[in-house]
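## tool: complex_structure
## caller: assistant
## args:
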Amino acid sequence: AQDLSWNSHGEQRQGKTASKSMLLTEALSNIASRYHVTFDYDSEALQQKQVTAEKVLQHIRNNRQYTTLDTLLKDLLSPFGMKVKQFGSSSYTIYIPGAPPVQRLNSTTAPAAPLPADTTIQGRIVSAADGQPLPGVSVLVKGSNKGAVSDADGVYHLQVPDHNAILLYQYIGFDSRELAATDKATAIVALSSGTSSLSEVVVTGYTTQQKKDITGSVAVVNTKDLLSVPAGNFGQQLQGRAAGVTVTSNAAPGAGVSMRIRGIGTINDNGPLYVIDGVSTRSQSLNSLNPNDIESIQVLKDAASASIYGAQASNGVVIITTKKGKAGVSKISYDAYYGMQYPGKGPDLLNTNEWANLIWTGLKNAGQVSGNGNPNHPQFGNGAQPVVPYYILPAGKAQGTVDESKYDLSTNQIVKANQAGTNWYKEIFAPASIQNHQLTGSGGSDKGNYAFGLNYFNQQGILKYTNFKRYSARINTALNVKEHIRFGENLQVSFTESTGGDYASGEGNAIVNAMRLPPIIPVYDIDGNFAGTRGAGLGNASNPYAMLYRGKDNKTKGFRAFGNAYTEITLLKGLQFKSSFGIDYTNSTGYSFSYLNPEHSEPAANNSFNESSNYNLRWVFTNTLNYKRNFGYHSLNVLLGTEAISENGRNLKAGRFNYFSTSPLVWDLNNGDPSTQTNGSNRTQTALASMFGRVDYAYHDKYLFTGILRRDGVSRFAPDHRYGIFPAASVGWRLSEEPFLKSVTWIDELKLRAGVGATGNQEIPRAYNYAYEYGTSPGTSNYDLGGTSNSTVIGYYLANLGNPETVWESTVMTNIGLDLTILNGRMELNAEVYDRRTNGMLTQPQLTALAGRANAPFVNIGDMKNTGIDLNLNYHDKIGGDLRYEVGVTFSHYKNEVLRLGDSGTEQIFSGGTRYGTITLTQKGQPVSMFYGYQIEGIFQNENEVKTHALQTGMDKNNPAKFVGKYKLKDVNGDGVVTLNDRTFIGNPHPDFTYGFNLSLAWHNFDLNLYLYGSQGNDIYNITKYYTDFQTFAGNRSKRMLYDSWRPDNPNAKLPILDANDNISNGISHSYYIENGSYLRAKNLQIGYTLPASLLKKAKIDQLRLYVQATNLFTITGYSGLDPDIMNADFGGSGDLNKGVDYGFYPNSRQVLVGISLTF
Amino acid sequence: SDGFLDKQPLSLDQTALANKKGVNAILIGAYSLLEGRGAGGSYENTTSNWSFGSIRGGDAHKGADPSSQPDINNIERYESNPTDNYYLGKWRTIYEGVVRANNTLKVLRLVNDMTDDEKKNVTAQARFLRAFYHFEAKKLWNNVPYLSDSLTDLNPKIPNNRDIWPDIVADLQFAADNLPETQDMIGRVNKWAATAFLAKAYMYQRKFAEAKPLIEAVLTSGKNSRGVKYQLNNCFQDNFNPATKNSPEAILEAQTSVNDGANGANGNSDVLNYPYTGGPGKCCGTFQPSQDLVNSYKTDVNGLPLLVNYGDEDVKNDEGIPSDQPFTPYTGQLDPRVDWTVGRRGIPYLDWGPHPGAAWIRNQAYAGPYSPKKNVYYKEQQGKFSDASSPTAVANNIKLLRLAEVILWAAECEAEIGDPDKARSYVNQLRTRARNGCYVQQPDGTPAADYHVDIYQAPWTSRTDALKAIRFENKLELAMEGHRFFDLVRWGIADTELNAYLAKESIKRVYLKGATFTKNEDEYYPIPQTEIQNSYVNGQATLQQNPGYK
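## result:
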């Protein structure tokens, strides 16, 4: 076949080919591919017919001669006495007048010639682009359950029942095609691949649109890429896959993610709305949703597309469509992977001798010496040098001085020192398995379709004794009950089970304890019981291994049912009514047992058992009327709808102490001491009622307009302030359809988009924000007024303040976008800029203590702006005939700024709870959650420097020697005293940009996928250094602290002099804690091999692919903590006020997996 | 859809509580913070003031291990950081108490089903509580804001640039004038408790002339809410025994309860202040009495304290001696109150057996050989007065004011503006009680040490000498009860007393080396930094930091 090049190089070769002739069939094939249309024709009739290539080329290059595709076709076909008729938007049938035309479903022409019953049709299915055979294409006899699948050579055989049979050809990634059984084209069926995604149908709100018609900002995520990352939830998989979507994760099994779309819109709840098969949920708990069920994900990023969801859409909307059956032959697939996850190296901490030396030096420098001039430490003695003892319990004893036979855990525990030093990180982390199994069956006919999926996911934690499992099942069915009535349902049920001890963030968790527990402590005592800090001078950290081991039977079990039942009724031509009732039902129960920990310096007095139970039901009732119609050059799509959402929750908690036995067999409340019982429950109920409308209008397929209006009412706000209206409008201009660009051959599609719209956010944890609520609880407000010692009089206290004036937080977003597809669909570029302004941000103001301890109401405190750029670039091509490749890049940048925070302009919101006060500041003119504290200027080298520097906390100018070696803090305002007012911005948690880079290669049966993700220019506030690099907390220390603290011979140290009395150096927020958090991580490398079809044919297997994979293969970063990918710690729902603060999180692990994908 | 959206709050609002029952429940909520817990936090906020009053005043060390409760290291070394959480917790709890008292008054205005007398009683109780909480703030920070019930701001920002003694006095005066002498329940304050606190407010302002008649009225006519006349308990230690709480000596106690459904949250907040492992509570070894305090209990041949030279020689202790090595306790003469105040080796520790020394101490080399004792319960009381879930939560009331302290004020007033020798008779009331034979005994019934205490026989003629003796008696009688530091400040002798204390004590407790008390700075604590941050209006902080803090 001749090569009719469409690319820019083709311009040069055009001279050679211009006058040449080509086969008509080939020309049609090229046109089909270029315009994303299909042609039905009698291939015999077209055989050998030649046309001039020039005609086709000219049409592409210069529109002077042919104004439309129709005229080109007419010109091409009329010499042969043929005509063309268009069906639908993209199908053309070529016929010879007089001969019986090919029958089509919606054709009004006469029926085709009868075909004998039960005739077998045989044919071959090829790719329209390159003529290569397509295996695995489903061929279905419409209206029946008869079907076939093409084999490795693209060949299919199918018995047709009668002469009216219509065959439907379907293949993922290609446009479907229908042919009459009588059509000779069934012999060789060419399917056009959607090389460009322009004709892709995406779900945008309550309706669907072709991608080319979209005027808002909608990111369509490639689900194949998504699933290539092994993770428990699609949130983790989505990291870096869509420009403008920032995902940070905590790698604990079953942990959640924090997803932020286009910056941080508010200091309130920033989580997006999830809409799954049309049912919305605010739950950010993604683990109970099986990612393998997902057919497609769209992210509505701007207000022009999201405002159809009104008051819930300020933070963007993630629309998920789950897999549906396709009309065709039933297909079963099995996908699985199994692998191991490997923990990283861990922090660089001291061994026993180093630790002893550090303590010794600190005591000496502090002058904490006894009469003989030496420190006196209960473990290391009173000599000139510290002596590591043989026993640490009893403290500081030498070998042979303790009678081990008198061991008694409760009264005389005996623990030997670990002379070499325990590496606690290694003790608590170990390689762990991860596996996923997905079985899917699907099929359908024109009467309906079904998809059925079963999933089992099991991720063992690299942190010992932690685990997450999920079992889920999905059934999606749709039935065409009548020609115009359709019923359907989508339902997923899942069971999840989380096991394990404490791995939440914060200083109490096992990971931080592994940093804090001294190396001299072994894991076990001489009798095999756990060892800990019970000996003197060892601090009060917990044995993290013991914590995990004791938590190994603690479980949280969840059940979630998510789905809907719906009906679609076609009332008139183009007018459809849809009604959907959906639920998101969760029920979970958790229990945990707290054991005695006699090895601990501050042991628990009693064992205890706690149990909790929660249920939440959200239902969403949606009714829409949708009218679609084309009038000449005008196409119109109108949607009107109503929605009611109700959410009800209840939870129950109870606990008892003093269990007679610790056996899990008696882990129920009844077995505890009834006099110690505590219990409580609470409820919430909220409701939302809405009306909405949407108009999509296109003129000439070139000028696009979308308008949206939604009115929402919520129960959260006072009756006067309940309702909000959210409008949006957007326009699109497909420049590539304009005459002046039609001649630019290398441009396939060029569209400019612009939109502006409003969305709202009412998502606050308070269900009755307007109300002043009194409450009571035994420990908070009851009092033993009668002096009984064992009973109380009930008291009430003001628990929640209310604010009836609070209204919606609203967001106005302006979005300008450009979509470009060039080089025959090989390159696609999407670029967008946006301006997002949130007005009346809802937050709980930090009230002074003079307001009391009642919870503050949420109020509309201020305004915030995000401006940003999202870029998406994809390029795919071939090298030689065999190597196909695809490169994708996403780039996201946002700039966040607080525009207003209260009325005076000087309001400040401090956050980031630590032992030394607040560390982030949010104020007008700055991004949210900036790191705030003192700027370290260096270290005082001598007394004179102390005397001449501004006065600091703890500094005594009359005794300057005491301050030599301490941090020199910048006197920002130059008033000679370093006070609160000298704190300044010391770091920025917001990245300059985040990016993803995806490379896919396919060579013969091999394929390779490499995915890199990075974040650039963000700082991290590394709180874990508070424990490892300073004095205040007893425990192990970093090598930095021992070797890079100030000494006269180490003047350029990073850390202050070792001084056991020094509670000042880390008692304030300062710049030492700040680190550059930029990183580039190889998230995924996957190499696959698809077995040759010829081998599989005998086993009746359609496709079998095997792969190996490595995730988090390497990370390039300067960050000293465990993992630069850190998720916000959530203190009272204000997670984004603690952005970029590392409290000691569960680090992401390296994973190595093998996988299989099987279809038959 | 209005009906659909009309979700009523699932709670009570002030309208629903605007009745006799409701307003009393809000008043109970205001009382419930008297023990310092219930508004977040725990032992740092307690009205026992073990760290703010006793440790800071030299009664005791933080104890335990250097790493435990690091904020108290700063309190003890006079190096307080405004970011330390102890100040924030205490400040917030105090002002929540004030807010609860004010809410009582606000809701009371809406009530229709109460008589004027009933309303007056509730008002007076609420105003007493409001004064009590403000008084706590005044003691710790001096420069503090006062909140009245006319305040309507959601987020009040009130400067701390005004002396609030007049407000505290006004509230206490109203309470004293309007409260009945007896109440339906022992925990409610009455006229006499209010009068005694009014006197205390004057004592803190050194207004002895105003204080004196009030004190005398309390001593002659005062009775508790049950109508029992105030009198000293026969035995000193009955003040610290949960079985004898609300005794005739008690003027105001924070009521505590256990096994009441709150898992110890209504118990005494001094949950850390027990011997370390093995003994009662099995935790945490905090609040260890100082050697200086123990030395103070030495007596001379006349059974009188060694006012000047008590520290020349230490009362012998078992520091450095393991529990399995023999040790003979100090054999010199001691005031018997020492062994109801301090746990020391070889002396019966209530009914828990003899204190074993090192075995009950977490880190002897760090914080010395002693254990606290006044807040600890008896072994036989386990389960009854200790909580089943948490054995260090105890229904041992916090003694906010007991008659002994009022008697000492009476002595002070006499010494300051009256008759020094009359002051002697007041002091002797306490020494007579100490002498009466209620000693710690060995199992065989013999006194556990050589207890010898007697009254001052010689007349007092010098005002200065009288004050010295009264102040020393105050130390002996009220040690470890959270008053010492505030009294030193009130007397204006904190810098000399505490620097002398540091010089001696730091030889044994080397972590105190280098610590100094700075006059005109360390008398008061830093205003919590978070609260200064939260007080900004138009870029200016409404709350000003106390002198000496950054």
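## assistant note: Residues 352-423 of chain A form one domain. Confidence is low (pLDDT under 50) at residues 1-19, 100-113 of chain A. Handing back to user.
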